[in-house]
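so my prof wants the structure for this chain in the tokens format not the other one, which i didnt know existed until like an hour ago. anyway here's the sequence
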Amino acid sequence: MSEAFYTDKARIRASFERAASSYDSAAVLQREVSDRMAERLSYIKHQPQVILDAGTGTGYGAAQLRAQYPEAQVVELDLAHAMLCASRERQRAGDGLLKKLFKRSQPWQVCADVERLPLADNSVDMIWSNLTIQWVNIPDSVFSEFERVLKPDGMLMFSTLGPDTLFELREAFGGVDQATHVNQFIDMHDLGDALMRVGFAEPVMDMDKIVLTYDKVRDVMHDLKAIGAHNATRDRSRGLMGKQAWRRVEASYETRRRDGTLPATYEVVYGHAWKSTLKKKGNTLPDGRQVIEFVKPGSWPGKV
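here's what i got, hopefully its the right format
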């Protein structure tokens, strides 16, 4: 995988720590994607008792999960402690209503990396992860952790960002220098392959595009900063961009202005899969029988 994909985890944590107080004011995309994920839950027959919200942010998705599954215990996990504090304050603000609606109003919170979950094997029934795994370096590592902590027949539902995300901004920065200025993201099909490599069954992947509009290029950058979505690639520029270089970026982006606004495109990838009840050792079941997977030539299991 290209070095441009690799992210600086310390920078990611620091960015989201700083953005906790401004996150909700700019997280339009995150809320929209969370709403779309919540709609999908109504079509899936699953009654989890313990749910892990992996990358909870300020708790918007966790609140939706509590509403959808009022008897379940939702565990909020995030890399940034300040985000968890913001989620707790959000819940306290509506604490009276929560106590009337739910038996378990106090959140369970864990400050940790999704690639190193401090949870026991087979301990959760469902994992929900909204726009988080784009920050990991190798999808196999996080999917392997998800598979480990899920109970047999447990469900994973996630969203992430695909390669066409913010292509307008990436192209506007093109040619300014040799550094990367926009985070890069993994293709949907590679994510599906990773799910199968770690043992998930019946992966289903699909994608749509959401376009936000802005008045100025600086407004795009402002929103990215407000939600903590700084460029975190390891080969990013460490210095400040000069005025002339920035003017070239603005001029390039301005060529995309339509109907008085500038577009910022997000390729949103959705996926869900199940932890198989078949425990394989290599390609062998516990009773010694061999497992042979048949795949139709030219097809990709789980592709929509």
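also thought this was worth mentioning. The chain is about 35% helix and 20% strand.
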